[in-house]
Amino acid sequence: MMLKLGHFGRKIIQYLKRFEMWCCRRMEKISWTDLVRTEEVLHRVSKEKNIIHKIKRRKANWIGHI
Question: What residue spans define the domains of the chain?
Fold first, then answer.
């Protein structure tokens, strides 16, 4: 049975993306008042956005083990 989260699920994904960017900015000590684009922040920490992909992959692996 597939659970549809709708608006609630979209909000969680939005919060996770914001949290991921916040962590990247903290690692590079970029102030929230500095105008640095998201792509530049990710380039500085040399990573891609992947927190959502990791969660989806782990969820799929978890479902596969039931």
Answer: 13-64
Please tell me the total number of residues recorded for the chain in this structure. Answer: 66
Give 27's contacts (C-beta < 8 A, 6+ positions apart).
45
pLDDT tens digits along 2-57: 445 556 678 888 888 889 889 989 989 999 889 998 888 888 888 766 777 777 78
Which residue in 9, 7, 8, 6 sits closest to 59, CA to CA?
A: 9
The half-sphere exposure of 41 on its side-chain side, counting CA atoms within 13 A, is 20
Amino acid occupying residue 12: I
Mapping DSSP to helix (H, G, I), strand (E, B) and coil, where does residue 32 land? Answer: coil
For the entire predicted model, the pTM comes to 0.62
Long-range (24+ apart) CB contacts under 8 A made by 5-13 are: 13/52
